[in-house]
Design goal:
A hairpin with a 6-residue loop joins strand 2 and strand 3. The protein is 4% helix and 48% strand. By secondary structure, the chain is mainly beta.
């Protein structure tokens, strides 16, 4: 039998982190961008599709993101009072 203290923590024991595709809507702050994540869901009674939008403050270490960029963000430990996400990659630069 192995001792649990000697085992290394892995990504599976830490849990899966949420990953989202978002659009940058503001980049005025240093190392922070504001992104908007959109989703669709059906209304419970009328079954009409409703667009939902959520804004997140995201950590951008290299200040690479610009307004209009499509980015992939991931959940992370709290970086500041409102920042709980960080930029994984820039999927598409704005034109």
């Amino acid at each position: 039998m192995t001792d649990t203290a000697t085992q290394q923590p892995t990504a599976s024991t830490r849990g899966r982190r949420k990953v989202r595709l978002a659009t940058v809507i503001a980049d005025k702050m240093d190392k922070t961008v504001i992104v908007q994540v959109g989703s669709s869901k059906a209304h419970r009674l009328y079954r009409k599709t409703i667009q939902q939008r959520t804004k997140f403050k995201v950590h951008d270490e290299k200040n690479e993101c610009g307004v209009g960029d499509l980015v992939r963000i991931t959940e992370t430990r709290p970086i500041s009072k409102e920042k709980r996400w960080r930029v994984l990659e820039i999927v598409e630069k704005a034109k």
